[in-house]
Amino acid sequence: MPRAERERQMLDAAVRVFGERGYRAASMDEIAELAGVSKPLVYLYLNSKEELFTACIRREARALIAAVRAGVRPDVPADRQLWEGLTAFFAHTAERPDGWAVLHSQARSGGEPFVAEVGVARAEIVAFVTSLIADAAGEAHQEPGPAEREVAGLAQALVGAAEALAGWANADPAVSAKEAATTMMNFAWSGLGNLMEGRRWPPRRA
After folding, report:
1. Does the pLDDT at position 65 exceed 70?
2. What single DSSP character describes residue 133?
3. Per-residue pLDDT averaged across 109-122, rounded?
4. Backbone phi, then psi, for 147, in 5-degree steps?
5. Helix H segments across the chain?
6. CA 71/CA 88 separation, integer angstroms
7. What's the predicted TM-score (pTM) here?
8. What is the dihedral of CA 160, 162, 163, 166, to 10 degrees?
9. pLDDT > 50? residue 206
10. What is 57-196's CATH topology?
11. Rounded distance between C-alpha atoms, residue 135 and residue 83, angstroms
12. Interior angle at CA 107, CA 101 and CA 109, nearest 5
């Protein structure tokens, strides 16, 4: 079997075990058995449990970012772009629940350097969402529009809320990716729409 295919099998098994058990409780023996290889072969390919977990984080982060970017068409209005990005995000996290668990919960509870690895991926997603919100502000043609710092804060809030909502959606099989995205849009877009039209909290005092 080609090395790349063998390594993919190992990472698939590792993501499943790490996603279910977490970094500390996961067993290299269990990962090797699930992958159908010997434990020495896992160490030969990926050196250590820490490097294996890091490789899982990086692979799942790349897949998530690629899915979100691919889901957004650049030639549609800003609200549609946000809708498409959210739908792609929730569809991906639902299709790969173990991968999402590795990124969202297991890596963050594993300490450094895993937290830093997730932080790099999250920063890329936040930057992408920041650009979507900035484009929405440009489409609204409101003066003055939201400041750069405000846009960055909105992106952080939106990504954080989507992460929490993905955890909720994955815990309930009845919640579809479309329903989760709709919930997020109802929560976020109404507020963003008001902001783009110059309506900010607090309202004018009586």
Report:
1. yes
2. H
3. 88
4. -70, 160
5. 3-21, 28-35, 39-46, 49-71, 78-95, 97-101, 107-109, 114-140, 148-171, 177-196
6. 5
7. 0.86
8. 160
9. no
10. Tetracycline Repressor; domain 2 (1.10.357)
11. 14
12. 105
- Per-residue confidence (pLDDT) for residue 140, from 0 to 100: 62
In the chain, the percentage of residues whose pLDDT exceeds 90 is: 62
- Residues 124 and 153: beta-carbon distance below 8 Å: no
Which pair of tokens denotes residue 92? 């991906």
Query: What is the Cα–Cα distance from 57 to 51, expressed in whole angstroms?
Result: 10
Rounded to whole angstroms, how far apart are CA atoms 156 and 130? 8
Q: Which residue has the tokens 């173990």?
A: 98
| Number of Cβ atoms within 10 Å of the Cβ of 166 | 24
Burial (0-12, 13-18, 19+ Cβ within 10 Å), 172: exposed
Q: Which pLDDT tens digit goes with each residue over 126-149?
A: 999 998 888 877 766 555 566 788
Alpha helices in 96-147 (DSSP H): 97-101, 107-109, 114-140
Q: Are 81 and 73 in contact (CB under 8 A)?
A: yes
